[in-house]
Amino acid sequence: xxxxxxxxxxxxxxxxxxxxxxxxxxxxxxxxxxxxxxxxxxxxxxxxxxxxxxxxxxxxxxxxxxxxxxxxxxxxxxxxxxxxxxxxxxxxxxxxxxxxxxxxxxxxxxxxxxxxxxxxxxxxxxxxxxxxxxxxxxxxxxxxxxxxxxxxxxxxxxxxxxxxxxxxxxxxxxxxxxxxxxxxxxxxxxxx
Amino acid sequence: xxxxxxxxxxxxxxxxxxxxxxxxxxxxxxxxxxxxxxxxxxxxxxxxxxxxxxxxxxxxxxxxxxxxxxxxxxxxxxxxxxxxxxxxxxxxxxxxxxxxxxxxxxxxxxxxxxxxxxxxxxxxxxxxxxxxxxxxxxxxxxxxxxxxxxxxxxxxxxxxxxxxxxxxxxxxxxxxxxxxxxxxxxxxxxxx
DNA sequence: GGCTCGATCCTAGCGCCGCTAGACAAGTGG
DNA sequence: CCACTTGTCTAGCGGCGCTAGGATCGAGCC
Lengths: 192, 192
Fold this sequence. Notes:
Two copies of one chain form a homodimer. Chain A is mainly alpha-helical. Chain A is built from nine helices and no strands.
């Protein structure tokens, strides 16, 4: 069986290569430049090979999004763990979120802007996505206050962060004021 | 000169037809279905005619976005004018914004999700876009509080609303709770 | 060791996209 | 009546996502 196992390993390896290359290409030249032809050329296989791993381009985007979700969850947890006190924790969470989006624009796009064909709010939502939201929920802790359901609070807080990311990226919000916006958001929304 | 004037009128009329048809097609089948070929067929002209009015597809999307911005500005002003008291005004503004996005998904997408080639935060930002933000700013009035610049406050409030729209559309936030989220946003963010 | 056969991968191509060059008809001014 | 501008169309370019069908190659059996 060793031969089959080796083949499976190689296959999995190649799948990782595809996702990593797609991400790399997107980081260098944007998602528009990520075409199946270019991607195939970079991994030094022909186009149809991509389709033996993924149903189509959407699924490749989705794979990048899942990778990103896992990384974001880790980043959020690391940031909140290092913070001291409730307010600092919420602020660190917010900064960490914005920071992640700024450092990985194509990954963030894959997660929220592009169609990666991922189910979001259903039972078959992929685990990494659920976990990223869980990390958000943990970090916010009891900043929701007694009169508001924590999940609802997390949703609104998340929406605000996501809006900041989107509008900043669109060139609508000058980056210099980012810090002040985070302060405003944390000071007013969170009860800490 | 009458002949030339008539021609100009007809030309302007056809341009409106193009934009309206693009919007209609997007509303019926989504922006993916808005191709230059289909659009040309619907207006009963050939493809190149589109390019005598717009530089390309992006500009057509941009035109729909501008139309949408003007409508949104009007909707926001109407909603805030009808509201009584500062808190009601802010709440009406928020509901009106979300309502607009829900009623006109493709238009909202043209404004904020797609690339319409519009300059956003510079001196040559088209007037309708500036005006829409102005309407937002007016509606929020002095809900910013004394310690926060009104424009900065408007940006954050807007970002939160935009995030709610995006995440709701992505299926991430259940629509039933929309009202409660608006309440949370208004109660905490606005000082009224 | 030679052969069969299934897995694996590639070449070629389909239908569609955004966009444009160049032919052609219609209307205007001399 | 003719030259010419203006407006529109036909046809086609390069590139897209995706797939059918043929070639190749290595594993497993006699």
